[in-house]
Specification:
Blueprint: H1 14-37, H2 41-53, H3 70-73, H4 79-97, H5 100-105, H6 108-128, H7 142-159, H8 164-188
Helix pairs in contact: 1-6, 2-6, 2-8, 4-6, 4-7, 4-8
Length: 190
């Protein structure tokens, strides 16, 4: 007489689905807690932006500097959308402020500290967002507005030969971006 065959659990396909669900949950929690552990980031970055301004003492008046998009100031984003928006802003800020021409106009120590802080937060946001996430669909995509805004900043710098005055305008716009990041952080904590 043959021995009865051991029955296999029927949940073989449940393990990968459970793993995906746990990964998504861990990512969401990581984004929610990112800013609560280091609430000083926006304030520290704003202080460092003020420190780079200490070398610029003359008033600066250039025509039509780019302004932070008003459409991004009043939005109803979900936490994962806020995280994606914050990441895009940080990536653009890092790319813009790490330009070689900032070295000529900004003191190196506060500039380097600021870039390190930006890179640190970029890294953490990249860790908490899934690689294949598409947080926005449709024509009201804030990431497109962010891309256009930073493209306009680069055109503004180019039009004014990356002058100290133009960089001071960019510093003020970076300040507006960081202040918006503070609002996005509150959204991520929901």
């Amino acid at each position: 007489m043959a021995a009865p065959a051991a029955t296999q659990p029927r949940h073989q396909h449940a393990a990968p689905a459970l793993l995906l669900l746990l990964t998504a949950l861990a990512s969401t929690l990581a984004c929610q807690h990112l800013w609560t552990h280091e609430d000083t980031f926006p304030a520290d970055a704003l202080r460092l932006l003020q420190d780079v301004a200490l070398g610029h003492t003359q008033p600066c008046h250039l025509p039509e500097p780019p302004l932070f998009p008003a459409t991004l100031l009043h939005n109803n984003l979900q936490p994962h959308q806020a995280a994606a928006t914050a990441l895009r802003i940080l990536q653009h800020l890092f790319h813009t402020l790490s330009s070689n021409s900032t070295r000529q106009h900004w003191p190196s120590q506060p500039r380097n500290h600021l870039l390190n802080k930006l890179q640190h937060h970029i890294h953490h946001l990249e860790q908490c967002l899934p690689d294949n996430a598409t947080p926005f669909k449709g024509p009201r995509n804030p990431l497109l507005a962010i891309n256009k805004y930073f493209r306009d900043i680069h055109l503004f710098l180019h039009a004014h030969n990356h002058s100290a005055c133009a960089w001071d305008h960019v510093r003020l716009e970076a300040r507006a971006s960081l202040q918006h990041l503070h609002n996005l952080a509150r959204t991520m904590r929901r």
